[in-house]
Amino acid sequence: MNVLLDHLPAFRDGFLGTLAITAASAVIALVLGVLIAGFRVSPIPPLRAFGTAWVTLLRNTPLTLLFLIAMFVVPQVLFKGLSPFVLAMLALGFYTSSFVCEAVRSGINTVPLGQAEAARSLGMTFSQTLRLIVLPQATRTVLPPLSSIFIALTKNSAIAGAFSVTELFGFAKLLSDQGYAIAWIFLWVALAYLVITFAISGAFRLLERRMGVAR
Hints:
The chain is an all-alpha fold. Helix content is 80%, strand content 0%. Its main location: membrane.
């Protein structure tokens, strides 16, 4: 307990940093994932090709390599002056968006084809059909895999600590470098991650119950 109490401000900053990067990356991943899923089921071939390339490239690239590109290549080639937090958030968000895309696409495929055909017969465009008819029905199917994806995102955020981003892994590394017993450090870090992941799991279970259909 003394390990935690003596370094409570640093632990608090690490905990809040993990929450911040997880939340920001989750928003990016969700927005991009839904958009790319729409591309993948689009009737326009170039959009389908772009969506397929996006998912194939990001899902098959190690996350650590994406962090290295974000931290050392992006500032030199594209955007200068971005903070490590923003770069880590983009790397995590882009990487996770490929998994969100596939979860959303699988949910879209569970919606009967007749729903889209009925919408088209009413004169609705593809985007209107997707936004108003298909995605609302696919949401119930998508929630369970999204829960697992965002829990994995929380754990993946630990990589950001190796790139000067304030989060729980950075707190553990700080105390480890100071010679504290690594077992006690990781105990508190693990408990903090459990709090976050249980909160995510609980939030998605609540959403599933609210959107559940009586059988």
